[in-house]
Amino acid sequence: MADDAENGAPRPKGRLRIARWVAVTTLILLVPLVAMQFSDEWNWSLGDFIVVGALLMSVGVSYELAVRKTGDTAYRAGAGLALAGALILVWVNGAAGITDSDADALFVLLVVPIGIVGSIIARFQPGGMARAMFATASAQALVGVAALIAGIVPAYNSPAETLGLTGFFAMVFVGSALLFRQAAERRPLSATQGG
């Protein structure tokens, strides 16, 4: 894969990238901290801040590890979309849930690990990452449909809403897969040019 120097876009060095993720995480965590001063609706404990901060930092570190050797825009976008989808999926399930509480664990305990394990098996190569994200999207859709068939839809979500949320997350992972596929199709060209 071509690195950023070949694309004319210098990348910040390791410490600067980590500092950037710490700054982003801090800014995001300031939102609930400030909101708590003005509304009783926001009532986060220290544990909530720690969990969300760790979750955000883990996404940032995972992104940096996944893209550290590539300057390919499609690959970077695919990694960012996959990680954002996983983060939002975990967040939605933690905050409100898509199905009833027992089934929600399946979204996080089945779908997200499929993406992680698939990525490791693919050695983060774009073609394998595309297959891993297609598998993740399929798992997302299957878990959502299974929840509907089993009738484990909470009172606050209609079957259509549950299907819509499930479809949204499946499409996020499909979008990531398509970006990785695009990166894989361009890779032979980059490799022959010395990347």
Walk me through what this model shows.
There is one protein chain. The protein has 195 residues and is an all-alpha fold. It has helices at 4-7, 14-38, 46-67, 73-95, 101-121, 126-150, 159-192. It has one domain (4-192). It contains seven helices and no strands. The chain is flat.
Number of strands: 0
Query: How far apart are the termini?
Result: 5 Å
Structural class: mainly alpha
Shape: flat
Radius of gyration: 19 Å
The tally of helices reads 7
Helix and strand string, N-terminal first?
A: HHHHHHH
Helix content: over 70%
Strand content: under 5%
Question: What is the averaged pLDDT score?
Answer: 82
Tell me the domain tally: 1
Largest sheet entry: none
- Weakly predicted, low-confidence segments: 1-8, 189-195
Summary of the model, kept short:
The chain has seven helices and no strands. The chain is an all-alpha fold. It is flat, with a radius of gyration of 19 Å.
Give the secondary structure arrangement, pairings included.
Blueprint: H1 4-7, H2 14-38, H3 46-67, H4 73-95, H5 101-121, H6 126-150, H7 159-192
Properties at a glance:
single chain; 195 residues; mainly alpha; flat
